[in-house]
């Protein structure tokens, strides 16, 4: 009996240590118990991963949830799952393809016409490290979807968000923004050799800069906007990377992934927290790493770059600046 005591206690310590380490690395759950009955929430890219669990967490809190996705079959299936799990029947699927300015305009027009209010907008959808694809309007895909698509969507919904104030916008960025740089000479990768990683990092840098400039413009309106890194999670985000598709990495690195990666449910906690926490009332223009506010990379704090990116984005998506948040055509 005694000869098993040592190995068993060593194993127990290792397992306990691994669980504690995992909790430390992967972060905590949203501490707020706030509910949001009567509030309307839009979550982009909500058919899977972090977006789906963000929608689920907010549905549990009683919101009227709109899942905004490009694939309606997956979107309806996610909405059904969330209704089933939360017993909140005000969870609905709507079509939104962020790689199409036309689709974004159609989605926004429908929301403006059919919804009385928009209290929470979670700009969550993203594509990571895809091949050198372009959107319907010719923008490099990662910059086009992750930044420009959400830039246009948010601007189109601003009047509704202002009319529903206090309201909140959550821009899901990534720690990867720290390796990002905005190349104003070639925002859409037409001159440089395409680099999938750098393109993702640039798009996530753009998301933080957009947050900063939007927050400045929204001062005094009751609408807040913050950016967040949700943590590293086991989702479909790596679908375009070799690592995600390799059986070797799934099998051999599985235990490390378990230890170091969050579940999508846990990775949805920071967006949920930013959407509902009472203590964040009025907090705007900040970057959160998980549940904690942190300084983003120096370039993301540069007001000059943020303003220049705003001006370029406005031009690229065809926003009519003379008409505030409304657009041409
Ligand atoms: N997972 C991580 O480790 C991690 C780390 C840092 C930051 N993030 C950020 O967290 C957010 C959620 O990512 P995730 O990990 O949950 O990834 P995911 O599982 O791949 O989900 C991404 C979502 O975005 C949607 N999407 C992609 N292109 C779209 C388009 N053109 N129009 C509308 N929706 C589109 C996807 O729809 P389809 O299913 O139809 O493709 C999917 O619903 C992203 O902003 C990501 O950058 C994630």
Textual characterization of the structure:
This protein is of the alpha/beta class. 47% of the residues lie in helices and 12% in strands. Strands 3-2-1-4-5-6-7-8 form an 8-stranded mixed β-sheet, with helices on both faces. The protein starts with a helix and ends in a 12-residue tail after the last helix.
Describe this protein with a few key phrases.
single chain; 329 residues; alpha/beta; eight-stranded mixed beta sheet; 12 helices; 8 strands; 12% strand; disordered C terminus; binds NADP nicotinamide-adenine-dinucleotide phosphate; oxidoreductase; EC 1.1.1.300; all-trans-retinol dehydrogenase (NADP+) activity; NADP-retinol dehydrogenase
- Count of helices? 12
Stretches with pLDDT under 50, minimum 5 residues: 324-329
Strand order of the largest sheet: 3-2-1-4-5-6-7-8
Output mean pLDDT: 92
H/E element sequence: HEHEHEHEHEHEHHHHHEEH
Multimerization state: single chain
- Shape annotation: globular
Helix content: 40-55%
* Strand segment tally: 8
User: What kind of sheet is the major sheet?
Assistant: 8 strands, mixed
Question: What class, by secondary structure content?
Answer: alpha/beta
Rg on CA atoms, Å: 20 Å
Bound molecules: NADP nicotinamide-adenine-dinucleotide phosphate
Strand content: 5-15%
End-to-end Cα distance, whole Å, is: 80 Å
Short description:
This protein has 329 residues and is of the alpha/beta class. Helix content is 47%, strand content 12%. Helix 5 links the parallel strand 4 (120-123) and strand 5.
